[in-house]
Amino acid sequence: MTPDRLAEFARTHGNLLRELPDGAVTTSVATGLLLFGTLGHEAWLRVDGTVVLGEDGDWGSQGASSSYREASAQEAAGAIKVASRRIPDIGSLLPPRREGSTCPTCKGTGHLTRTDGAVFEGIWCESCLGLCYLVEGTT
Ligand SMILES: [Zn+2]
Prior knowledge:
Layout: H1 3-12, E1 18-19, E2 31-38, E3 41-46, E4 51-55, E5 67-70, H2 73-84, E6 111-113, E7 119-124
Antiparallel strand pairs: 1-2, 2-3, 3-4, 4-5, 6-7
Bound molecules: zinc ion.
């Protein structure tokens, strides 16, 4: 996954782009494709190919606002994998799985996995973020 490929995807899927709500973002986040949003977390693919994470540690409080930061390569890939359930085309942006890159934390399940092998499917692995493998530069 390269920023150029992400930017091309964002440009060719312009119908999915939307403005972020006024006042909800810093000026460094303009427009983008919402990859996912859940309580206290959201991820956006910006037209420049970067992925931005919004985090609100105080969600639910009146007047609370999110803070935004650029995602790491692993975070960006995890967000794209989640988005591929809703937008299948975006799965083509996932970085290739390299030999030996299976996540050592979850053993490739993508979910929280205990040392005895029990898998908690509702919780993403904290290392690979649901991707099942580590992207280049993470290992
Ligand atoms: Zn993992």
